[in-house]
Design goal:
Layout lengths: L1 E6 L2 E6 L10 H12 L5 E6 L10 H10 L2 H17 L3 E6 L2 E3 L1 H8 L2 E4 L4 E3 L2 H4 L7 H9 L1 H10 L3 E2 H6 L5 E2 L3 H9 L3 H12 L5 H22 L1
Parallel strand pairs: 2-3, 3-4, 4-6, 5-7, 6-9
Antiparallel strand pairs: 1-2, 7-8
Helix pairs in contact: 1-3, 2-3, 2-11, 3-11, 4-6, 6-7
InterPro entries: ClpP/crotonase-like_dom_sf, Enoyl-CoA_hyd/isom_CS, Enoyl-CoA_hydra/iso
Family: Belongs to the enoyl-CoA hydratase/isomerase family.
Protein name: Enoyl-CoA hydratase/isomerase family protein
């Protein structure tokens, strides 16, 4: 479900499952992790095929995890993928065009820069299903937008348009062509990009938060599965 191509000094990683709004399966998470971590390019541009960025975790995969009682394993795989994106040598840009929901927002948060088109929208919709974003979102969202807005977005599940997301700092730029921003970054010195990324991210230590996410999500998912029976 992950397509990769090289455009100049930018590796473009496309979530290519438009019929499912680019929802991520466990296998897709592995592919995404490899596509970003193994990039031999100064900049990686992550985007979605069709009219969505990503709907987040694939619903069928979530239901299957509940049936097999391995929700923590599924969440761990997502967390590892997001951490690999943060740790990649490349600067990773989320080019968001269309909806980003749940894990799609978490994917964007794991990237170094979020650039959106005017058609982009963002929502942490897990609370409406009795779940929540557990791929590191409870750490990254308040770190990016501040605690107050993080609580508001997570507890309400409301949808932000691109300009509203920009105002609270969830999005750094709103442009017609997000890829142009990736090209702009790739025009800078490769070594300087790598060093700056590592220095700016050096304060982030989220393993303890992620462990709590896995445990809490597993409990909520068990209750969610019972309601489906």
């Amino acid at each position: 479900m992950i397509q990769v191509e090289r455009r100049g000094d930018v590796r473009v990683v496309t979530l290519d499952r438009p019929e499912k709004r680019n929802a991520l399966t466990p296998e897709g998470l592995v592919e995404l992790r490899a596509a970003v971590a193994e990039a031999a390019a100064p900049v990686v541009h992550v985007t979605g095929a069709g009219d969505a960025f990503s709907a987040g975790a694939d619903f069928d995969s979530v239901a299957a995890a509940a049936e097999r009682d391995d929700a923590e394993a599924f969440i761990r795989r997502g967390q590892e993928t997001m951490r690999a994106i943060e740790a990649a040598d490349s600067v990773v840009v989320a080019g968001v065009d269309g909806p980003a929901r749940g894990g799609g927002v978490e994917l964007a948060l794991a990237c170094d820069l979020r650039v959106a088109t005017p058609d982009a929208t963002f929502a942490e919709t897990g609370v409406k299903l009795g779940l929540f974003g557990a791929w590191g979102g409870t750490h990254r969202l308040p770190a990016v937008v501040g605690l107050g807005d993080a609580i508001d977005l997570s507890l309400s599940g409301r949808t932000l348009d691109a300009e509203s997301a920009h105002r609270i700092g969830l999005v750094q730029r709103v442009v017609e062509a997000p890829f142009a921003v990736s090209e702009e970054l790739a025009g800078n010195d490769d070594a300087a990009l790598r060093v700056l990324k590592r220095r700016l991210r050096a304060h982030e230590r989220i393993e303890e938060q992620e462990r709590g996410e896995r445990e809490a999500f597993a409990e909520l998912l068990a209750a969610y599965a019972e309601r489906l029976d």
